Amino acid sequence: MPTNEQRVLTGSHFMNGDTACAEGALAAGCLYFGGYPITPSTEIAERLAHRLPAVGGAYVQMEDELGSIVSVIGAAWGGVRAMTATSGPGFSLMAESIGLAAMTETPCVIVNVMRGGPSTGLPTLVAQADVMQARWGTHGDIQAIALAPASCQEMFDLTLRAFNLADRFRNPVFVLADEAIGHLTERVVIPAESEIKRVPRRAAVLTPGEPFEPFRADETTLIPPMPLPGVGFGAHITSLTHDERGYPATDAVTHDRLVRRLSDKIALFSDEITQVEAVGLDDADVAVVTYGSTARTAKRAVTLARQAGIRAGILRLISIWPFPDAEIAALSARMKSIVVAELNLGQVRLEVERVARVPVFGAHHAGGALMPPEIILESIKEAARHGDGNRSRSTPSRPLAAV
Amino acid sequence: MARHEVRLAGFGGQGIILSGYILGKAAALYDGKDAVFSQSYGPEARGGACAAEVVIDDDAVDYPVLTRPDILVLMSQEAAIKYSADMADDAVVLIDDDLVTAGAGRMVYGAPTTRIAEEMGRRLVANIAMLGFLTGATSVVGRAAMEEAIRTTVPPKTIDLNLRAFGAGFDHGQRAVS
Fold first, then answer.
1. Between chains, do B63 and A40 touch, taking CB under 8 Å as contact?
2. In this structure, how many other beta carbons lie within 10 angstroms of the beta carbon of residue A153?
3. How many domains does chain A have?
4. Which residues from A are below 8 Å from B149, CB to CB?
5. What pLDDT is attached to residue B147?
6. Which parts of chain B are beta strand (E)?
């Protein structure tokens, strides 16, 4: 365990996924972690407990996840990049204050290394069933930003990117990892510090003699520049619906204006967030839409499908929220049918069905082990059989295969 | 064969997990291959038999866990019973033959890796002797890559001891298959 003051561990490593996530945070310049260790995310906390104090940051083990997320919000308003890491049960406890972060436009990163739920479920085993929770887990209309790493390298890369998106959009950003990726160990290449791209938070400027309005949005980005603490801004921050001054204004006009802006500042700029990877789609009839660890299985399944004479490819969602509607629509125009493969009973499939105009099939399993290639392969075969000539929007949903 | 699936199994305290990490590291960082290392988590992995799993591929590893191991390293009888069921029909099995009795009908190679380590004065390096035996008896990863992975992983003061244990195991491995 490095205990030196090196913030960016430049070089090639054979590194655990959770550890790579922690190193991605450090490379992003994260200086605060507030959390409550929970399997399978614990190695993130463990690594940062060692590393943050050595680089001048702070690690605080909070009393629970309710405190964790609020401490992260406080640290972000204190002017630093801040994060927490958890898994399903902790993510549920954080739900309320994720809304607080959205409402107060607080940039922060929340890593959820997904395990089997509901409730305590499978503490040590993989699932991908918190995707809709990330989208809708807090009350009220919010726009979620969520990234889904499929390798230890992406645990590093996407955690770094999550911090940049958080500051760009002044919003909480989720890294929706899963146990399988968090607990793998693979090659992770960390670039030189000079090659690490950090997008700074847009800082507010204090104009002498003019009242400061902390929630007056920039007209182009719809995002208010963020005040620094301790230099005289005197910003008022509340979870109530507020006006541009940050004062409570609980009326319909202000509420609609505020919530619409909170949504639009992300929804209208989603092309800056969307990140997908296309594999073997050029000549394909069937596309597998997938993400996270299941994308690793899908690559195997597509290889097997091509050996069986089916032209299949993969559209891997690297960002899940905002949902890449345009990419799915374009895919739908080129494919005869689509398979959605995920370790849950059909969460992203709902989104694909909403957008696609070709038959959509599901390859689902509730979790507990990596998705077996056979389940996806069977769905690809079924999709290939039904794909010809049937371009209705009907969605013959496949019964769950037992494994 | 492009893809190798290696399982190393023994009892807690033998350094099984570390040896899996070193094998994966050697392949991924020093041998021009891709490799993924994983281990069991949870109460079932505490005490008794334990296993480390490494997938090594000339290309990128897609499915990152074992389906049918083609190389099995066994350092305890309990592990041999618990972790042998799903191996490939043509799997190569490497055992510490002081500790494990191999089943019949397999391609089994044995070396007294724990005794080798004890004769060097440190039983602790039995896992590294076994990595040497694995490297000498199979072509899954090169010797230089393994030695570099050992050098960059073990505590600096123990590098010489570990490399000697590795070398002794390697010689056993080469003799076993010659």
1. no
2. 19
3. 2
4. 14
5. 98
6. 3-11, 34-39, 49-57, 71-74, 92-96, 107-111
